[in-house]
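Replying to the earlier thread about multi-chain prediction with a worked example.

Input:
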Amino acid sequence: MNPKRKQRLIIVSFLVIGVSATVGLIMTALSNNVNHFYNPTEVVQGAAPIDKSIRVGGMVVDGSVNRDGKSLAVAFTVTDYNNNVNVKYTGILPDLFREGQGIVATGKLDAQGVFQAEEVLAKHDEKYMPPQVQRALDKAQDAAPAQTY
Amino acid sequence: MWEAFKQWFHRWGSPKWFYERSLVWSFWLGWGAMILLPIGIVWGLAFAPQDYQQGNSFRIIYLHVPAAILAQSCYMIMAVAGFVSLVWRMKMADVVLKCAAPIGASFCFLALFTGAVWGKPTWGTWWEWDARLTAMLILLFLYFGVIALEAAIEDKITAGRAAAVLSLVGVVNIPIIKYSVEWWRTLHQPATFKLTEKPDMPVEMWAPLLVMVIGVYCFFGYSLFLRSRNEIIERERRTLWVRELLAKEGKV
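Result:
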């Protein structure tokens, strides 16, 4: 390689390394702000501000969804499998909202530690399955305890 | 071995060689795209099974994922071309960089658009400022930046150099897009397909997706070669070989 190209190679490499390092440092510094939502553990530990518009995300606890029969009000609990946060919401839930699924809610944390949501989004996971497979899995799960008798 | 590689590398730098060879390549890639894309689309949209939770709306994956993969690969190709252009001052690298940018931008837009259309029924929103979505939007703006630089600077060498620097600097965004769903908490789900693990998807669902991804790459190669051939003719119009070529085809 001739010396001129070598020199340019070094300069360009430094440019790339320099920019990567800068962006890397900025990203590390901002890492908390880049997170899209607080998880229940942070809320319970008091890391999430009270009475400010924030997002909280987690899994909807099985059997925790309580719908008000007369209005659109609904209460449920989200978990990160370590801590739980109670959420209250009035409005239409997304189609994929169900127990055991992830959600991200926007709203305010009140003084009692209940999250008053203004918007609830379903967080989808990376698993895909045909419905027949899911039915077969459910069946196998239902059948499994019977075998122990 | 090293000598052979060097020779191969320098041959790519010759516009004339590239022009002569690329006709055959673009022909086969064009046919590949024309066969694979309709098969993938019809298979994915009509014959692949529904998802157990999302029903039919998951089928947008057959457009969204190939478009997003291509938008990122295209930018990496541009960064490599930019690197070659800056270090070796190779004309062909400038040509490829310039011609790839609008294709990549289109696919990036398609990925964002299909993602929004899917997000509405699935998440309940068209757009959220989470890390993955924002990084992908930045990629679109980087593409716009490269296109704007190429269009704004009249001198081709200066324009090529400016676009090369932007492509190289912007490439840090690619790992951020890729790992955003692992480094931070995002609304966007993590990748279903990983190189090291089995995908969380049965074969009858991912087979059409694979067809689409290969088809989209074929289409990308086809249009990149076609656009590059045009660009070569325009840039080299004063050289003897282009004038002879045009005279032979009776176009001048």
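The CA atoms of residues 124 and 244 of chain B lie 60 Å apart.

Feel free to reuse this layout for your own posts.
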